[in-house]
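note to self: dont lose this again. the chain is below, predicted strucutre after it. 122 aa total, dont forget to put it in the shared folder this time
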Amino acid sequence: MKVAIPVEDKSLQVNICVSFGRTPYFVIYDTDTQTVIYLNNTGIASQGGAGIKAAQAVVDSGAQAVIAARLGENASSVLSSAGIKAYQSVFGSAQKNLEAFQNGSLSLLTDIHPGFHNHGGQ
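---
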């Protein structure tokens, strides 16, 4: 299974980026092969719709799950429509969150906010 995580830098040792739509990168981790790919978030510089573009990039990557601190309504809708489950991150690195995911200790992300429409993120 492929898991997508928004991160500030191309490393599993960095903390998860709190802004899904404005994250610079996504870690795409394959739990079956234990391989890591870093995906540039092309939505980061968008005037609007960054969450939608970021979510579509995750869908296009083939991810089946997302670990995030929060999601906006539009990003959540895109992910949900593609059958991608979103999990609530815990404080710490992407690596720590992957371990928690694989141990089954992350809960589904249910706190979806209305987004930061036309605010340039965060």
